[in-house]
Amino acid sequence: MHRHTCHGSAPPPSSRKGLKKIALVGNPNVGKSVVFHSLTGAYVTVSNYPGTTVEIARGKIRIGRTEYEVIDTPGMYSFIPLTEEERVARTVLLREKPDLVLQIADAKNLVRMLPLTFQLMEVGLPVILVLNMMDEAEKIGVKVDPQRLEELLGIPVVATVATTGRGIEELKERIRVFRGGGKEGASSILDYSEPVESALGDICALLKAEYGFPKRAVGLLLLQGDKEIREQVRKEEPRDGYSRIEELVGKTQAHFVHPLGYHIALRRFDEATWMVAQASMPPSREMRLTLSEHLSRLTMNPWTGSLILLAVLYFGIYQFVGVFGAGVLVDFLEGRIFEGVVNPRITAWVVRSIPYATVQDLLVGEYGVITLGVRYAVALILPIVGTFFIVFSVIEDVGYLPRLAMLIDRVLKRIGLTGRAVIPLVLGLGCDTMATIVTRTQETRRERVIATLLMALAIPCSAQLGVILAILSGKPTALVLWAGTILLIFVLVGYLASKLIPGEKPSFFLEIPPLRMPRLGNILTKTLARMEWYFMEVFPYFLLASVLLWAGQLTGVFQAVIAALQPLVQAIGLPPEAAVVFLFGFFRRDYGAAGLFDLQQAGLLSGVQLAVSAITLTLFVPCIAQFLVMTRERGLKTAFLIALFIFPFAFTVGFTVNFALTALGVQI
How many whole angstroms separate alpha carbon 596 and alpha carbon 464? Predict the structure, then answer.
């Protein structure tokens, strides 16, 4: 097929002084982060990419006499971004102009991996293809010849098993000797159909500006409908030139029934299929499924997967977080350590050393920074979030989360989401504030709004969940009532939101990593990192909340707010003292849950009142931190509308549940 020549330049090797840059790219769940840590070790910093809330990890490595900065980009399936993560990954590649790109690929799923390789090569990036998870490929009888694939692609190819370190030294050596190149600069590896090639030649001739990567790649992105590139071309090119480009795109589309992006993707898929057939050998015999593969299938089967999920929830969340974390650990820290030792001694020291009653109240009073803020944060909340972080790290390291996403994808689609939403929803059980940021991984704005609404309404954070499980564990009827009501609200509100909120329906595809035994080192590293996040990001809110409560009591504002809340609280059948719980909950969800714990310990709530208060508090407005993040992520209008809906809705549900239980004479 005749290819029209497109003149243009690829991103030049970095000419800046200082470190050379290596960017790691690849689909999610292919072991990219493991390769990153294998290369960089402990010399890693994590920060938000400028102008976004997407985290980028950076580290350093010295190979020979050269020191490199290594950048771990978010997962991407295509060079045309659908999610914020993919957008940031592409921005890193185009803006930072890395000297080398390592594409981490799943060796057993190369047909799905190579289309991204072609796209990276088409934009002229210097690429080394890293075939990771070779052990998993070998287990299922997939035999890949890296040398043959290297010949076909014209770029270096290295086989690795990052979890064991296999191939990492070879990768370092290939990085050391890398000089760029590949056939024809590796920028024009594929021919497309004649109408596409003809349009590319004409578009290249019309493009006058420089875009930092080959004009042929710009043309391909324009033909595929890339909105960002289209807007950039519109700004950079003369009006008549841009109009002619738009006409060319329209005329080319007229040759095809399906969108041009589909035909271009299909061509890449066909080429990937051919290359994999050339560079791999079929299994010599039928391979038996391993135990991990049998278990993997069981986790995604609707029937067995549901039982496994219930087991994870029961043993992981209820027993470990609810009973052990919120029961055993909280009793020890709150009862023996703080109530028995810390609070009495510090209170005595403050009273003896500080003569001013106002300052004494600030430090050790009813709402004191130490006696309330530190006690709640360390004795009540820390053991709960700590045990949750351990559970989350285990199921993350095992590879269960992607399988859970596949399991509940069909259910989530009923409420306008996909299996992709399982990550922020599960993270919401740790901290809804952090999970609200993670909703950026959702493909459409509609999905992001629905996920944000459901987390603000019906996903209790780990501390709130742990405390509720602890106080309701002795009353199974109340626990079932609470869980059933929250689940019903989650599904009902999600379903109605999916019908009322405009937008396109979501699509879903996900790479499934191998199911592995968890590694203690990985679990400890992840748990400690999240505990550090807790102390840096969450702990200060407890201290701030104590100061605000102290100031509110001092000025009378606190009493006024409680007085305003008391009629609402009494309307749902709770004692007036429960108004404090909802005021606490406004500062932080877990703060409110801890206040509920105190009321229960004081014997002020009956079984019915416990159930009603737990339901209402779970549905109550998001805490200040979550509301601020909602405002930043979804905009002030959307955040305000969500809060405006949740506040009356929570008390309406509480009133309805209390009325029904009272009318039926139910005793809990």
Answer: 10
Q: Which tokens in the block code for residue 378? A: 């360390």
Which residues face 129 on adjacent strands? 103, 157
Please tell me the distance from the alpha carbon of residue 471 to that of residue 467, in angstroms, as a whole number.
6
Residues 311, 313: Cα–Cα separation, whole Å? 5
Q: Which of 417, 485, 484, 504 is nearest to 452 (CA)?
A: 417
**Domains of the chain, with CATH numbers?**
20-186 (3.40.50.300), 194-281 (1.10.287.1770), 302-505+522-663 (no CATH)
- In this structure, the number of other CB atoms found within 10 A of the CB of residue 590 comes to 29
What amino acid is encoded at 258 in this protein?
H
pLDDT in tens, 196-237: 999 888 888 888 888 888 889 899 999 998 888 889 888 888
Q: Both tokens of residue 354?
A: 């500080």
* Angle between helical axes of 636-663 and 557-571 (0-180°, round to 10): 50
Compute and round to an integer the Cα radius of gyration of the chain. 28
Lowest pLDDT segment from 43-57, 99-113, 522-536, 573-587: 43-57
- Distance CA(27)–CA(46), nearest Å, equals 20
- In eight-state DSSP terms, residue 189 is -
Pairing mode, if any, of strands 143-144 and 157-159? unpaired
Q: Among 123, 115, 126, 144, which residue's Cα sits nearest to residue 182?
A: 126
Query: How many angstroms separate the CA atoms of 590 and 617, rounded?
Result: 10
* Partners of 352 in the β-ladder: none
Average pLDDT over residues 522-549: 77
Tokens 């203690």 identify what position? 520
For 488, the enclosing helix (H) or strand (E) is helix 476-500
What is the DSSP code string of 277-305? HHHEE--SSPPPPPHHHHHHHHHHSHHHH
